[in-house]
Amino acid sequence: MGKKRKFHLGAFIQATGHHVSAWRHPEAQIDAGSNFQHYRKITQTAERGLFDAVFLADSPGIWRGTPETQKRNGKLVHFEPVTLFAALSSVTKSIGFIATASTTYEEPYNLARKFASLDYLSNGRAGWNVVTTGNENAAANFGLEYHPEHGERYERAEEFVEVVKGLWDSWEDDAFLRNRESGIYFDPDKLHVLNHKGKYFSVKGPLNVGRPPQGYPVIVQAGASEAGRELAARTAEVIFTANQTLRDAQEFYSDIKGRLAKYGRSPEDLKIMPGAFPVIGRTEEEALEKYEFIQSLIHPDVAWGILATYYKGVDLSGYSLDDIAPELPSETNNNKSRLKLVRDLTNRGTLTLRQLYMALATARGHRTIIGTPETIADQLEDWFNNGAADGFNIMPPVLPTGLDDFVDLVVPILQKRELFRTEYEGNTLREHLGLGRPLNQFAGKKDQMLIPAYV
């Protein structure tokens, strides 16, 4: 009899929490974005809960708005993820670290070097969340007048990932002999110079960091547009997705898993983990009270700012929050999959603008679950057992208390149902996720390229 399939869990940590007004909550760590001890506490809580990894989103620019919305945004400043995770790796033993980095606004060599270093510093616990960046405001930070088009960003991303993998394979696993007696430090036959020349990049190599302990840090992806789905099927090992209904989650799960075969991959090679925003109470009434309280913290300026994000180019000045939500634009150069999700949300019923912003204020379109620990576990189990998820990225409304509640109240129920581990069974992030260690693509092949003189 085969081993019972079990949940994978990620802790999506976003400073004060995922709710748009989390920073105003009395239980929030108000200076969370620049407070290392805060991140240390919640990461150690996630490790106590035996999570596979902590996950940190990032953008190379702030999300701008009007002066009124900007001054009320509690998420403007926060640590750069790889730097933060390098520090957190020294105060943890087992949990993985998935850091977001952009293929549009970074260069392959520097990124490959950073993540290989993080994998060494954490003893094989690093993951890279590959994003093309939907934030058009980032362009001006890098000397660009315009944010590149969606299709171009994904085309660049495909080449970017291949270059990074090639750099991670610069050295074979046993290339470094370090033999004092012979005076030989490395075996030249096990060094591979990339010499990549493509449409977007020209990268010679080799990388000046050895092959990462995991072979490659785990590749994670979050896009759900057509281009995003194809990139995930080709390159991703974990995909973080946003789905509101079981039916939508099943469609996405089936579609992505069905694309793997053409790339020589099996369904087990890619884990699909939808986001879940749990509001947990010891009773249903308490959970609802928690939800209503945090929603009450949304300032009207912030509410209109949320709506303006999706109604770009639409004049809402003649509307009140109690008017029926008008039709959303059908196209964007930012996050196409998120716009589709919000359009689907409005098309499922007659929502007012107030109901729409309240639905988006919690987790930006990810699934909100309100209930007791038992009913939260029930709903997660339903998706897990019905072809919708391999696990979940948990998005606490407020930090640190939201993660405390999930670890202390929901995880024991999942463990009792034999749906989640009771101890870590491996040491690396790949082992936690049940992913194989990739072979070096150049190993065993005669390298025709010259070893540069500086090596």
UniProtKB/TrEMBL annotation:
One of its GO terms (molecular function) is monooxygenase activity. Belongs to the NtaA/SnaA/DszA monooxygenase family. Keywords: Flavoprotein, FMN, Monooxygenase, Oxidoreductase. SUPFAM superfamilies: Bacterial luciferase-like. It comes from the Bacteria. The keyword Flavoprotein applies. InterPro entries: Diverse_substr_monoxygenases (IPR051260), Luciferase-like_dom (IPR011251), Luciferase-like_sf (IPR036661), NTA_MOA (IPR016215). Residues 25-388 form the Luciferase-like domain. This is Nitrilotriacetate monooxygenase. CDD domains: Nitrilotriacetate_monoxgenase. FMN binds at residues 58, 100, 150, 154, 225. Transmembrane segments: none annotated. The keyword Oxidoreductase applies.
